Amino acid sequence: MGQIALEGLEFFAFHGYYDEEQKIGNKYGVDLYIKTNLLAAGESDKLTETVNYEVLYRLVAEEMRAPARLLEHVAHRVLDRIMAELPHVRKVKINVSKFNPPLGGICHRARVTLTKRRNKAEAQAG
Fold this sequence. Notes:
alpha+beta; 126 residues; elongated; GTP Cyclohydrolase I, domain 2; 4 strands
């Protein structure tokens, strides 16, 4: 088992609880951590034996383009997409941050973290 991490992804998106946030947009950050078997790729040096970073980025970017009220919802959608489209992934952890959230005071970012793991039956089928 090993981990692939994409850290510091940045997007401009239109998420937010308030209608105004969904109109003007904001900057968001994403950190993604994937647990999967990396031994075959380490031995073979073949991209087909691992999770392609470009595919991970594309899945995150597509979900970031779809507006949501809550960061929790965005994070959940990303987890679901990764688990649905990448059967070799065993566990995913995601941090989604909103920079300078409108709280009425200084806050560099608000962040949510979600984790999803395949159950044993899913892992054996995948």
